[in-house]
What we know:
By secondary structure, the chain is mainly α. The protein folds into three domains: 101 residues; 96 residues, no CATH class; 103 residues, no CATH class. 67% of the residues lie in helices and 0% in strands. Helix 3 runs parallel beside helix 4 and helix 8 runs antiparallel to helix 9. The longest helix is centred in the N-terminal third of the chain and has 29 residues. It starts with a helix and ends with a helix.
Amino acid sequence: MSRPEKKLVECFMKRKALFVVRDSVEVFINNFDNQNDVFQIPIRVEALDRVYNEFLDLQTEIEKYDDPEKFEEHMQERATFEARYCSAKGFLLMKRSIDHNQPVLNTSFTANHPPANFHLRLPKIDLPKFDGDLSRWLSFRDMFTSMVHSNADIPTVAKMQYLLQSLEGEAHKPFESTDISADNYALTWDALLKRYDNKRYLKRQLFRALYDLPPLNKESPQELHDLVDDYQRHVKVLAKLNEPVIHCDTPLINLLSYKLDSTTLRAWEEKTSSADDITYEELVDFLYQRVRMLKSVVTDLQ
Length: 302
């Protein structure tokens, strides 16, 4: 067994152990006792956060070493894990807030018809944020759905306020004058879906975003890191939209190469000059390694 194969087997085993911990938290939630289990919530939240962070690191390693044809499968694994993490943590945070005697509603008003400018005192939830960046829409949609939209324990009027609190910038502008009421929640959520949840539109805009990423004019570890992160984010969302990007090595490599500064591009060409076939992942790995090297050099010079 080669070294990459051993590494992959090791990562899968570690990931399986993380699934066990996550599943135990979900069992705790399914059997939650409001009187006896509330004191375990901080411990469970800490375990859930630890597992989530370790999963992200392991999943990145798995995607690096596994068969590229399994890319879509791994993206689905990420989405599933994230949705279950958000759902579990949202439940725990809500239960913890309720236990702290933070009122969910002001009882002087009915739940479905508060005054237009009235704001509920909601349990604290680490809401996902969305500012109109299309590369972050699918992640926001799935997280908000699992944490708030599909949560039957949250009153509809509270969902409305959570939704408005989650929207920022361009995404919030169309709803700036929307009243907080149960009647407006479904209308607002549907309007948001019509605006952003269109696969054809998303694909077109994401490809445009790839082309519009600004090229680097000089060698800079931070700017290079930002460029690769943004490029990768767009590509991964396209993969989630079933766009066959994993079979598009040459166009992805060429487009990203055009964005590189001359020094980095020269280093990449020198590294691959004798190779007949190059993958997009090889370019990404090279650029992240270069970021680490450049940051190390900057640190040493300080």
